Task: structure prediction
Amino acid sequence: MGYNSEHGIWIYANSHWNTISHNIVENNSRYGIFLDHSDYNLVSHNEARNNYSGICVFYGDYDNLENNIAEGNSNNPTWSEGIYLYRCTYATLDNNIMSGNKHGFKVGGFSLEHYSTHDIDESNLVDGKPVRYLIGVSNVVVNQDNTDIGYLRFVSGENITVENWSMSGSGNGVLMAGVENGRVENCTFENNISGVTFSLTTNSAIENCVFRNGCNGINLTDSDYNTIAGCTVTQTAREGIYLYGNNDNNLVENNVVGNCGWQGIRLESYSKNNIISKNVVENNGYEGIYVNRCENTTISKNMVRYNGQTSNNSGILLKDLSHNSVIDNNLVENHWGYWHYMGGIHISDSDGVLVCNNTVRYNTNGIKLDWYLYNDVLENNTVKNCGHGIEFYRNVFNALVRYNTIENCGDGIFLNSGSTGSTV
Result:
């Protein structure tokens, strides 16, 4: 069963209690076997080869995968997995063999139930090595002596350390879900979909690790009081470091993030009180640092340069209700593109933002305020060699601009399109 333009077998929308058994599905443009919003199904003794991904279960409950072979599924350079569970609960996996796939195995979700309810034992193999899916364990150390691991996940434990270790070709290099006091340090991750993922994890750290290639380097989801420090992230297809969901009180510091396909550092969706400081962020495809719908963010002492060169994006972008944030003492340079879209520092639809003590040079616009902003303050910045030094574009209200040095720009300060009540 192969060479189809979509899936080999697609079980869709409340299709329950089915048995999918003894099939060979190969060379399909998408999934070999795809269970989609369907429960209590048995998938057994199938062979899924050379598809976009081998066997995928999305939004399924109580599905059972046993004695399947997923081999050589690598038709997508970023996402291909042997077996992938996404937002599932109570799945059982036994005696499945995953080999030669772009990424062997992955489990994803947004609640602890998506991780903690599965029964996945070591009879499942990734490239001949057992899956270690560890629930409720504590006081564990994984290091360079632990070479017989095909996939590593910790769920609902504490005091977990992974050190001096490496992983390549996995859905998640290391994933900790619901963990307290976890540490990943001095490790190397290559060609994983995500190098390290923290989900619902607190008081933990990712330090002095190297991430190369793959989709994302580091992901945090709904995780608080964590530190990402001293890491090098390069050549990922999407974000280098990505915090998504309600991530509060995290520190991202002293990292080097470069040559990533999307943003270097991305913080998104209702997070509060995070600090992004002392990072070098350069040569990324979109923005260097991107903050969306997050309050009280501090972006300070970063070197941000040469980002968004082919996509008309900015060095630092703060947008969509990212109120009461501080952008302080950064060097932002060499961001050029279409006149109205780019800025070295770009603030959009965010109130009460303080932009101070930054050096901004060689950008299309130096500092740009855009789209219904109130009560922002720009002070003590040095802006040189930009198109507009400081631009207000579309409905900026009651801004305070003072004590800035602006030199060798097309316009020093440009107020445009309905900007009202500001003091310059």
About this structure: The two ends are 69 Å apart (CA to CA).
